[in-house]
Amino acid sequence: MAFFDKLNDLAKNIGDKTTDAIETTKLNSKITTEKSAAGEDLKKIGAFYYAKFAAGEEIEPSLLERFQSAAAHYAAAAEAQAEIDRIRAENEAAKAAAAPAAPAAGLTCPSCGTANPAGTRFCASCGARLEPPAPPEQKLCPGCGSPFAPDARFCNECGTRLE
């Protein structure tokens, strides 16, 4: 029976340690939550007094230096954001200039130049007949007549060397 008593004590000991670990984790979580809430309250207090400073109200001299420093940091951040915006605008302008013009969707009327939706048979502006564009011409193998890719060196069907 001594064996079972030891086993029982071991299980109880493990259970106690697990309970302690769970309780410690809960308390650490509560500490973190409370400190975070206190930090949020301090931020609100700071924002309140900074708003007074920004509005030109008289501020305690010991805080004035901190507020001026914060104002300088806000100004530096605004300058950095303006620089980021300028760089992004330059990059987008460069992309737009380098990108080829997107082809108009659908068909362009040969008579009046109006863009019409794909699959349309007659122009919506002038009524002229619209011809669908011819499909691109496919190259055929001279040996078997099968179509092949433009960059192929040999036919996939018969193995003939392509030129």
Structure description:
By secondary structure, the chain is mostly helical. Helix content is 56%, strand content 2%. It has two helices and two strands; from the N terminus they run ααββ. The protein has helices at residues 2-54, 61-98; strands spanning 107-108, 115-116. The protein has a two-stranded antiparallel sheet. This is Zinc ribbon domain-containing protein. Keywords: Coiled coil. Residues 70-97 form a coiled coil.
Cα-based radius of gyration, to the nearest Å: 38 Å
**Assembly state of the chains shown:** single chain
Q: Let me know the average pLDDT.
A: 85
Number of helices: 2
Query: Strands of the biggest beta sheet: in what spatial order?
Result: 1-2
Helix content: 55-70%
Q: Overall 3D geometry? A: flat
- Main sheet: strands, sense, barrel: 2 strands, antiparallel
Strand-residue fraction? under 5%
Question: Which stretches are poorly predicted, pLDDT < 50 over at least 5 residues?
Answer: none
What's the end-to-end separation, in Å?
A: 92 Å
The helix/strand order is HHEE
* Class derived from helix and strand content: mainly alpha
Q: What's the total number of strands?
A: 2
Keywords: Coiled coil
InterPro entries: DZR
Coiled coil: 70-97
Domain DZANK-type: 109-159
